[in-house]
């Protein structure tokens, strides 16, 4: 009986490992969100392998345990590839940026979110699904005199970018064909340094191949931008998803690892990071933190600080 149970458990675990390992063969859109959980699934597979070995100690159980450990190890390595590392943490930041998907139906917390944004001391705020803030815009605009988005009523209020400093240029465009106007490109002068700010809200990766098309359009946009770049927003995928990895690698984007988990809220710090803030040299992150309260959203917000490093010298705040 133990022999039968052993091989039944081995069969189920083999299939599960094979499905997760398909990332090394193909980036099939239906499984792409599953790939974001490679570390979590690896831990689950290790636990399952130990259960199998408790039932019966045979070589195949040890093979499954070894492969499960490899999945975890490679997940950690993949995250490390895009790690910013410590840089300029002893210097004052050039600017602070907040990015938060507040959830499009989060009306009851709109006042609290508005108060939090104003009190954040962020220089730039990137708010996604901002429709619930439609009745607080004038209050926000007093604290942040410059804005992009939410100009024609609440029904078109999706991405809202707020700034304490004037935009040198600004553009709102679409990516892919599923949703409109979810890519905002702007630039702001911080103490004589022009920083390019890109706000993005990608579709869920299991919505056919729409996210892949959006990433292609986003890559073209970033490829046309010279100088320091900050990319922030809701990617609906972790940094280890194959499509996101390829995109980050090609664009030379970095973040601070481990990234704070932002979803699902119930999992807290044991969740995954699907909301991100990335920087491209000569701009570097020195701090990346999750907001203390999700304020009714199904995402956690992020706040980051940056320094500019030209020719090995980090520019301080001015």
TrEMBL record:
Keyword Coiled coil carried by entry: no
UniProt GO MF annotations: endonuclease activity
GO biological process, one term: GPI anchor biosynthetic process
InterPro entries: Endo/exonu/phosph_ase_sf (IPR036691), Endo/exonuclease/phosphatase (IPR005135), GPI-anchor_lipid_remodeler (IPR051916)
Gene3D superfamilies (alphabetical): Endonuclease/exonuclease/phosphatase
Endonuclease/exonuclease/phosphatase domain segment(s): 98-299
Residues annotated as transmembrane: 5-25, 37-55, 62-80
Source superkingdom: Bacteria
Keyword set, alphabetical order: Endonuclease, Hydrolase, Membrane, Nuclease, Transmembrane, Transmembrane helix
GO cellular component terms, A-Z: membrane
Name of a matching Pfam family: Exo_endo_phos
The protein's name: Endonuclease/exonuclease/phosphatase family protein
